[in-house]
């Protein structure tokens, strides 16, 4: 199993880059899967009646977020393992900004289940992230609406990604999401995995 964890703060363009990865690998008839940690967590959270939508997850008490993280990790590993030697990509966050502080997205008990080869940090300038957020009317990201908060969150994401990587011997790669050309980041991620 080859697993790359693709991280980045809300609005950095992870979904666009991952969609581009999907297009590239589909054209090349590659065997791959793209999973979203939030989708796995949301499915369980809705079943347990904890939330009604995705953006409410990061506002849950930390103990419930941890419970959802663990269940998601187990299901993600199962799905990635079922692909055999194909490429697996996991869309998630290295950190989650919560009312109680920064929650590691890939703490010890999670990263040891997932066993990634690479943790990717997709980054952009804070002002560009704000612009992308304002253009996305499908999500509510008011808690990331200040450039200094975005910068701080990206710094914590770097620290967290490296700490997680140390636990499983993964590498960490910073990938810049070039405005207007997500194929640059997509190709860097594919070639690194």
Automatic annotation (TrEMBL):
GO terms for cellular component: cytoplasm
Location(s), subcellular: Cytoplasm
Molecular functions per Gene Ontology: AMP kinase activity; ATP binding
UniProt KW keywords: ATP-binding, Cytoplasm, Kinase, Nucleotide-binding, Transferase
EC number(s) on file: 2.7.4.3
Matches recorded under SUPFAM superfamilies: P-loop containing nucleoside triphosphate hydrolases
Keyword Chloroplast attributed: no
Sites where the protein binds ATP: 8-16
Enzyme class, first EC level, given as a word: transferase
A Pfam entry, by short name: AAA_17
Family matches, as InterPro entries: Adenylate_kinase_AdkA, P-loop_NTPase
Catalysed reactions, semicolon-separated: AMP + ATP = 2 ADP
Family: Belongs to the archaeal adenylate kinase family.
Protein name listed in UniProt: Adenylate kinase
Organism listed in the record: Metallosphaera tengchongensis
């Amino acid at each position: 199993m080859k697993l790359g964890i693709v991280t980045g703060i809300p609005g950095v363009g992870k979904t666009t880059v991952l969609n581009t990865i999907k297009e590239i690998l589909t054209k090349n008839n590659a065997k791959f899967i793209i999973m979203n940690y939030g989708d796995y967590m949301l499915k369980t959270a809705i079943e347990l009646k904890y939330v009604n939508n995705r953006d409410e997850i990061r506002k849950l008490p930390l103990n419930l977020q941890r419970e959802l993280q663990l269940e998601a990790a187990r299901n993600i590993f199962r799905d990635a393992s079922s692909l055999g030697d194909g490429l697996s990509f996991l869309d998630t966050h290295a950190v989650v900004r919560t009312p109680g502080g920064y929650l590691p997205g890939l703490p010890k008990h999670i990263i040891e289940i997932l066993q990634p080869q690479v943790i990717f940090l997709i980054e952009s300038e804070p002002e560009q992230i704000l612009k992308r957020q304002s253009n996305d009317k499908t999500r509510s990201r008011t808690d990331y609406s200040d450039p200094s908060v975005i910068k701080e969150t990206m710094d914590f994401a770097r620290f967290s990604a490296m700490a997680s990587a140390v636990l499983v011997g993964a590498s960490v790669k910073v990938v810049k999401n070039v405005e207007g050309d997500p194929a640059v980041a997509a190709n860097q991620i594919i070639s690194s995995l």
